[in-house]
Design a protein that fits this description.
Helices cover 69% and strands 0% of the residues. It is mainly α.
């Protein structure tokens, strides 16, 4: 009779201990997953910050003559083939030929 009671208590204690070990293991696994996800998140944030910083530095670097590309052109380049009367008068003034 006493041995039966001891066996029942031992079984209860053993099952309770197994549940406690499972809870602790689950908690440790959850903490490990949180820690890993935290460090992965920090890695991606710092990587993006480095890329943004280098892009900003490149974008705001001083311009050197000849290194930049000029896009586009004249909308109607044929208009410059023959000068109009106003342009001829201005050129004559600049060259000093208007004084004649």
């Amino acid at each position: 009779m006493l041995s039966d009671i001891l066996m029942q208590n031992l079984e209860k204690y053993a099952s309770a201990r197994i549940v406690m070990v499972d809870e602790a293991t689950t908690k440790n696994i959850a903490y490990a997953i949180f820690a890993i996800s935290f460090f992965v998140m920090i890695y991606f944030i710092t990587k993006q910050a480095r890329e943004n910083r280098s892009a900003s530095i490149d974008q705001h670097a001083p311009k050197i003559a000849g290194s930049d590309e000029l896009l586009g052109g004249a909308k109607n380049p044929e208009q410059f083939d023959e000068p109009d009367d106003d342009a001829l008068e201005q050129m004559a003034e600049l060259l000093g030929e208007d004084e004649d």
